[in-house]
Amino acid sequence: MSTVAADLRIIKERDPAARSTLEILLCYPGFHALVLHRFSHRLWRCRIPLLPRLLSQLGRSLTGVEIHPGARIGSGVFIDHGMGVVIGETAEIGNRCLLYQGVTLGGTGKVHGKRHPTLGENVVVGAGANVLGAITVGSNTRIGAGSVLLRDVQPDSTVVGIPGRVVHQSGVRIDPLAHSALPDAEARVIRNLMERIDVLENDLSQLQHCLRDVAAGRPLLEGCGAKAQNLKDREILEFLGDRSSING
Description:
This protein has helices spanning 2-14, 21-27, 29-45, 51-63, 185-215, 230-240, 243-247; strands at residues 66-67, 72-73, 78-79, 86-87, 92-93, 98-99, 104-106, 118-119, 124-125, 130-132, 136-137, 142-143, 148-149, 157-160, 165-168. It is of the alpha/beta class.
């Protein structure tokens, strides 16, 4: 009962549309799915055959949220809206995590054993995001809507993109519900690429003038050499995940 009470409190805390406990009890499918799961998970741990899976399928039909009875879910978890959420058998979700609609905590391949992700505490997973494989997502991490995360993430990180890339925000405290505050890594890299192209075009034009001076027998002026934009190149390579090129 304490876990259910924690689930109720987190909904009141994080959803301004939740006006009363009765409204949550009657109208929140994510909450209904968690209550059914906590019961089916107890049956699963007692090794009762078939019944836990039947309850899981019942919860899926009633709420649109599919949670395997083997998944381990902490207290104070909020599945907002919930439709289309899928949580696999060996997934683990820490306390006070927030999952939006369309989230998948799925596996990769057909291996046995641990094959689904582990989320630390206070992790926020945006709508439509996919977290796949036996990876670990550190506490206080935010995963942007529509991202596809395939590798481990350290705590206090922000993940965006396909595949998911980590954007560090050291020392900056951000509201976990403020999805508009997520950095646009793709836009930043495209802007850097455009700036780099502009620099290269200017360098090329300058070199052409130098070649004309050489052909005409005129002395070369200073500034005929082009300088690489190392900082821009480094940011682009980090976005592409080319670590070997960065370290080299």
